[in-house]
């Protein structure tokens, strides 16, 4: 046991954290047990497994799992392991298992809920303790699986908060994302981008609400956007969204940063009812929502001016442009980012095209903006590996965070409240002792939808 609870707690101060949190593989291993072994983690969206037998593999912390649609419509999340020799039952990616899973090694078969179906030459197992009804001969299900409006989360702990309570104040971000559809539903569409970053997973979360970096880190991209706009005599959307990072500090200071338990939070601008009609795509969107919900509600939905949301441990939904950047820790210095884009079902096609444009220009591996951040995350990783200092600062507006009925709120949009809140949650997870997640995972039973 490399760290006691006291030693772990000492790595997080109210205004700073120790660099070991980003560089020590032993810390990373503990995070996989104590955070990813316990918390609700986003697995994928139900629309990624639309038909019976459809599966989608992913990583939940350090575990290979798959999400599968069973014949009764339920979505299950299983560890991707055959109980015979331990082989991964399906290769990484997506596909359709048909009516059952069949391990490619010795053809053991499993129902779509993971339960044991059969083995070839069964007589060879007679008289042994092989028992098809014994769960240890099935593909193990994750202990808890729940879907919130199509977003499937799983927990490796058998007990804990319900998903809605875990999400708390950021549930409203998922609601707003779905409410932008006239039928209240979204689906993953247009493919998924994947980017492997050479940095620790926590740096990405910190950056999501780091308003002080925008006009510095992204200077090259917003300056190029401004030059281009000058040259062509207009500022189309693809340049406008790059230009935004160049707003003066006074702009960022006015944003509101909300922080909730479990490390979650979001960044919000002033409610903007005018957003509903500001351009032809928004107008058509507004009309489709007005027909479904009435004008006032449509204005509320499109007026919610929320930028990045943090669901700590899972990633960042973006409501206005319908993205989910899923953050998958791989190693202490490797993080896989999976960028999902959503179509609002029933909304005009222009809304989806705009979401794709945002994904390409801002978030994709070949965008003009994301590489700015990735370069800095890597510099943080490499700088924190030196003996140049032990502490990482989160001092900005420390001591001023306001507590209200359901969480905390910044006094200034440049506050480092979100980072402090994330590490408050980190400390709570990490101090709580080892073993709970692993013990709960061993019980293994869960399904949803
Ligand atoms: Fe950035």
TrEMBL record:
Keywords assigned:
2Fe-2S, Dioxygenase, Iron, Iron-sulfur, Metal-binding, Oxidoreductase
> Which PROSITE patterns has this protein been placed in?
RIESKE (PS51296)
* InterPro entries with a match to the protein in the record: Rieske_2Fe-2S, Rieske_2Fe-2S_sf, Ring_hydroxy_dOase_asu_C_dom, Rng_hydr_dOase-A
Residues annotated as domain Rieske:
41-154
Name the family the entry cites. Belongs to the bacterial ring-hydroxylating dioxygenase alpha subunit family.
**Entry protein name:** Aromatic ring-hydroxylating dioxygenase subunit alpha
Is DNA repair found in the keyword set?
no
GO: which molecular function terms?
Answer: 2 iron, 2 sulfur cluster binding; dioxygenase activity; metal ion binding
Work out whether the entry's keyword set contains Zinc-finger. Answer: no
